[in-house]
From TrEMBL:
GO terms for molecular function: DNA-binding transcription factor activity; protein dimerization activity; sequence-specific DNA binding. Keywords: Coiled coil, Nucleus, Transcription, Transcription regulation. It is found in: Nucleus. Residues 33-60 form a coiled coil. GO terms for cellular component: nucleus. InterPro entries: bHLH-TF_ACT-like_plant, HLH_DNA-bd_sf, TF_AMS/ICE1/BHLH6-like. Residues 68-146 form the Plant bHLH transcription factor ACT-like domain. This is Plant bHLH transcription factor ACT-like domain-containing protein.
Amino acid sequence: MVSKEQKRAALHEQLQHLRSLTNSHALNKTSIIVDASKYIEKLKQKVERLNQEIVSAETSSVHDPLPMVTVETLEKGFLINVFSAKGCSGLLVSILEVFEEMRLTVLEARVSCTDTFRFQAVGENEEQGEIIDAHTVKQAVGQAIKNWSKSGDQD
């Protein structure tokens, strides 16, 4: 049987894990849970905002044929999203070439290139001394998209 002390230790360990996941600096249980709740609300808002940006991109794609780019700063690295309402042959290569030029390491990526083009990646800077901000990443990816568009590789 599991003793009360073992249960208490397990609960404490789980709370500390929750505290680290949510970047909480709280010390007591209630504050850790409140911080986690606030963190979840922020994530929900971020998801809603990203969904709205996608809907906006889908509705404006008739007027603006270039894919939409969003870049967010994470604790370590960036979350890069590229979306187009149409397939974009060759665009993935152009984007990954920019990552290589900027010395960004792709830690995780999801890509869909069938009817639409969706690219989501988490990347971090390989060079510890060189600091790259989200705006710089967005500009570089945007320029890669413009270059790709001018090169005639698109569908």
